[in-house]
Amino acid sequence: MRFDCITLFPEMFSAITGSGITRRALEQGRWQLQLWNPRDFSSDNYRTVDDRPYGGGPGMVMLAEPLEKAIAAAREGAPQAKVIYLSPQGEPLRQNMVKAMLQELMQQGVQDGGKAEAADEARLVLLCGRYEGVDERLIERCVDRQVSLGDFVISGGELAAMALIDAVVRQLPGVLNDAQSAEQDTFSDGLLECPQYTRPEQYAGSEVPAVLMSGHHANIVRWRLKQSLGRTAQRRPELLQQRGMNAMERGLLEEFLQEQAQDGKR
Ligand code: 9WO
Fold first, then answer.
1. How far is CA 93 from CA 99, 106, 145, in A?
2. Which of 177, 210, 242 is a domain's end point?
């Protein structure tokens, strides 16, 4: 699987190539990164990649031509590769979208002959904007999809692109070990994570919940699900609404709320 990023700041991507799970998966050949700097595709001696916005106003807008040339270079040999523009105007990224992207990429890899070249032919192009954005005609001509991480503005698309790559790569088979399994993540079953504890047993006068020290596995599983349901109900009720609950889960949520009311009285 190959990610091609169009970026004026290729050095930033050392954040995912240089550390952690994404680095290990890269070293194992499970994914590849190609970086394309629009400056290398500009047509003047100054290597210009931006200009003032028509209609006036602050800031600069990225020129269409160097970006289109960079995108063409990124797609060479993979005409089916989709182009994603990371922007606050995009569709909100969700875990389901991450999973669908992974599926689509793995499907591309299979169609293009499996095994060796597959890692290369399953390709996603990520367009990272800077300044005030990108000439709209470039978006119309080249972008298949716009994706947003949420309703906030940052200085450019790079951090968002890296977040997207990280989210997809950690879903690849064999990237996480059993203990880290992506199936245990928040959102794998549409719920927030339960609280986590590690040593020491007492910290700043506060104890680890007794059930976690009991060694009673079934009770622990039940407690964790109850906490996840309770947290999701209180912090992200819309997630629980979408997901629904079975009778057992409704009982656990009821228990959570009663226990919380009890704790409140103490
Ligand atoms: C910059 C700017 C400067 C002066 C006046 C108005 C301005 N708006 C912007 C702006 O929104 N720039 C964006 C920076 C252009 C597209 C790339 N950038 C970006 C992507 N910021 N935030 C994102 C992003 C991407 C995905 N999810 C959340 C945020």
1. 11, 19, 11
2. 177
Distance from residue 167's CA to the centre of ligand 1 (Å): 21
Number of domains in the chain: 2
Domain span at 244: 202-265
Mutate to test the pocket of ligand 1, among 153, 155, 158, 166 (most ligand atoms within 8 A of CB): 153
CATH of the domain at 229: 1.10.1270.20
Beta-strand ranges (E) seen in 43-127 are 50-51, 61-62, 82-92, 123-127
Q: 125-163 pLDDT, tens per residue? A: 999 999 999 999 999 999 999 999 999 999 999 999 999
Ligand 1 centre and the CA of 16: distance in Å? 21
Residue 28 contacts residue 149 (beta carbons within 8 Å): no
Task: Say if ligand 1 is within 6 A of residue 210 CB.
Answer: no
Cα(58) to ligand 1 centroid in Å equals: 13
